[in-house]
Amino acid sequence: MLRHSLKRIRNAVLTKYPCRKENVTTSSGEVWDDPWQAAISKTVILEHTRSKAVEISVDWKYVERLMPKKLIPDVPNHDTYPTPSGWRPPKPRPDLTFYVERNRDHLLPLYLETRRDQLDPKTLEFEYVELVLVKGIHGDIFECEKKMREYLEEYLHHPIATHVDELKGFIRIKGADRAVVEQCLYDFGF
């Protein structure tokens, strides 16, 4: 059955494309011995494999402006600080054993994290608590945690909970608002 269908294909190819007559036959003369070889011309294969390098001149000025910038832009200059959004430029590096690095937008790396807290026995629902996450801390992270805890407890007049992850370089703070932690870092000189 396969042999008959291949013969029909061979006859159709020969009648449709008479110029391919020499390409359809193989060394034994039968199409079903190697149908792929019969379907592809040897001259076509040689033409496709012979390639030459062609240099095309392209005007890259339109593409380059779409590419991301590799350098962080300079700190913007404003007339007054803090700006209406509350942003302040970084001060010269303070003489401390730790350093809080700003992100590429020149903002302090403060993030809010919501976690489940305790189960309320009356409603049997979990209470949620907001944690402030300070990332990008380099140097003595435990000294940073100690100084931040002292500052925040003195400012808020109640104890706060902290968690230090030395390997990832961040501190979680429970019991203080993000704006208060931001003010603490600004007062330290970051």
Primary descriptors:
190 residues; alpha+beta; Translation Initiation Factor Eif1; 2 domains; 4-stranded antiparallel sheet; two-stranded antiparallel ribbon; 7 helices; 6 strands; elongated; ribonucleoprotein; Large ribosomal subunit protein mL49; ribosomal protein
Fold and architecture overview:
With 190 residues, the chain is of the alpha+beta class. The protein folds into two domains: 2-49, no CATH class; 98-188, 2-Layer Sandwich (Translation Initiation Factor Eif1), CATH 3.30.780. Helices cover 33% and strands 19% of the residues. The protein contains seven helices and six strands; from the N terminus they run αααααββββαββα. It has helices spanning 2-16, 21-24, 35-39, 42-49, 61-64, 141-156, 178-188, and strands spanning 98-100, 110-120, 125-134, 137-139, 161-165, 170-174. Strands 2-3-6-5 form a four-stranded antiparallel β-sheet. A two-stranded antiparallel sheet has the order 1-4. It is elongated. The N and C termini lie far apart (82 Å). Residues 21-26 have low confidence and may be disordered.
What's the short version?
With 190 residues, the chain is an alpha+beta fold. Helix content is 33%, strand content 19%.
Walk me through the topology.
Layout: H1 2-16, H2 21-24, H3 35-39, H4 42-49, H5 61-64, E1 98-100, E2 110-120, E3 125-134, E4 137-139, H6 141-156, E5 161-165, E6 170-174, H7 178-188
Antiparallel strand pairs: 1-4, 2-3, 3-6, 5-6
Helix pairs in contact: 6-7
GO molecular function: structural constituent of ribosome
Pfam families: Img2 (PF05046)
Organism: Brugia timori
